[in-house]
Amino acid sequence: MKKLGIILVSHVPEVAQGLPKLLIQAGPDISLTDAGGTNDNDIGTSMEKILAAIEENEASELLAFYDIGSSKMNLELAIDMSDKNVHLYDTAFIEGAYTAAALIQADASLSEIEEQLAPLKIK
User: Fold this and answer.
1) How does it assemble (predicted)?
2) Which of 55, 59, 71, 101 is most open to solvent, judged by the fewest CB atoms within 10 Å of its CB?
3) Considering Cα of 61, then 66, then 72, then 77, what sign does the dihedral take?
């Protein structure tokens, strides 16, 4: 298992659960966890689900990607409640996560990954 892992947060449970199927193609040795939807699996996000995904991830350092709005807010709250080192990225959700997965698999450093993520930043 790689030192860096990925957490995915989406308002839609099926998106959060489906994206790892794509990422595992680029990074089969990466710990991927996801949190999608509310506690009732409706559209929205859950800070509790996000915190559980952070804690369940086997990697010692995480790169976090999210889709929109409140997912970032709940992700920030969960990061504050965790002892893990989590880096939050404001990038295009799928493209950012896929880029990170491919680079983690290739043993790129965090600074190299962040350099590649910079053009994908949502402004």
Assistant:
1) Homodimer. The dihydroxyacetone kinase complex is composed of a homodimer of DhaM, a homodimer of DhaK and the subunit DhaL.
2) 55
3) negative
Residue 88 near residue 67 (C-beta atoms within 8 A): no
**115 lies in some domain:** no
Place of tokens 């402004």: 123
Six token digits for residue 107 = 């043993």
Domain with residue 18: its CATH number is 3.40.50.510
Distance of CA 32 to the CA centre of its chain: 8
Query: pLDDT by residue (tens digit) across 66-99?
Result: 999 889 999 999 999 999 999 999 999 999 999 9
Roughly what angle, to the nearest 10 degrees, separates helices 93-105 and 13-26?
A: 30
- Residue with tokens 């989590």, as numbered in its chain: 86
Catalytic residue among 4, 11, 66, 74: 11
Instruction: Tell me how far apart the alpha carbons of residues 80 and 82 are, in angstroms, rounded to a whole number.
Output: 6
Q: What is the DSSP letter of 120?
A: G
Q: Say if 85 falls within a structural domain.
A: yes
